[in-house]
What does this fold into?
Amino acid sequence: MAQSNIEPMSDERVPGDDAPPDPEVFPATLLEGAHVVVTGGGSGLGRSIARRCAAVGAHVGVIGRRRGRLDETVALVTAAGGTAAAASADIKHADAVDAALAALEDHNGPVTHLVNNAAGNFLALTETITERGFDAVVGTNLYGSFHATTACGRRWIERGRGGTVLSISTTYAASGSAYLVPSAVSKAGIEALTRSLAVEWGRHGIRLNGIAPGPIPTEGAWKRLVPDDALEEDLRARIPLGRFGTRDDLTHLALFLLSDLSAYITGQIVSMDGGEHLATGGWFNEMARRPKQELAAMFAAMRPPSRDTPGPTGTPGPAGDEPDGS
Ligand SMILES: NC(=O)c1ccc[n+]([C@@H]2O[C@H](COP(=O)([O-])OP(=O)(O)OC[C@H]3O[C@@H](n4cnc5c(N)ncnc54)[C@H](OP(=O)(O)O)[C@@H]3O)[C@@H](O)[C@H]2O)c1
It folds into this structure.
């Protein structure tokens, strides 16, 4: 498939969009006949998801506020031989979402899949956040996902042919995150929405799942959340697999969860973060960042001498039998 470089990259720390899905893994017909609508499809991860879905046979529709960015995505998809349409809308407003979906259906036929990807976010001391700032993030992330999900759900229930929703959450929806409170609470709400509707709408053949990614360099996320190299390095050092996620990591999982490959999976939020949320939860997980030999020496020095000195029966001596309380 022809690749183009339309996506502007103002931050050299952020790699551009990459290759289409490996045809050996994902057949070009994986989503043939589907109409996948991606909110926030005019940039970053949403654009990558839209392009990958089109590469495996789906018609794609992208929704966002900036028409120019949406049109760039449409141009990338059509240049690669796919079908795409754009509709601008501020997803904070239910009427606007419904009108955008209707316009996309006029172009691409009935929507079959929804990707709740659009989001806003900013770092702030929570006590300084205004009602307007809180509304902007929660209105986009949570209300926007609710509006898009229910607008699709109503159509799917009426038509009786099922449907699939994939929401892009974040790992700190579960843990909470200092300085990102509006985002954390709204993503936690999206996860609750996903689990709730998986049960309520299962009878209609509607599946809902989510992906909780760790950091993935995109122009939008890096500009808002990772202002300098030191913070970037600090974030990277927390990840057991030693690197940030990539658009391929995300889109491979997205294709799986959108397609019938995952036909029996619903109500699940899949973490995709190189182990980051597990590593930062445990008391001693930070130790994994120290050199292994240093740890081995430290642990050996801490061991009671009697552990290495077998008792008369060959078992550890008395002082080594009982761990100290913690
Ligand atoms: N990149 C990461 O490290 C990371 C990690 C975890 C989760 N995520 C999640 O992944 C998703 C994509 O993030 P990204 O990094 O690709 O950021 P991004 O490029 O800034 O994408 C956000 C998109 O949302 C759209 N949007 C924002 N407000 C909107 C509104 N009110 N109505 C309609 N569209 C709106 C934006 O388009 P307009 O401005 O044109 O409207 C933009 O295309 C988000 O849900 C984010 O929380 C990202």
Notes: The chain is about 45% helix and 10% strand. Confidence is low (pLDDT under 50) at residues 1-9, 310-322. The beta strands are 35-39, 59-64, 83-88, 113-116, 163-168, 206-213, 269-272. The chain has two domains: 35-279, 291-321.
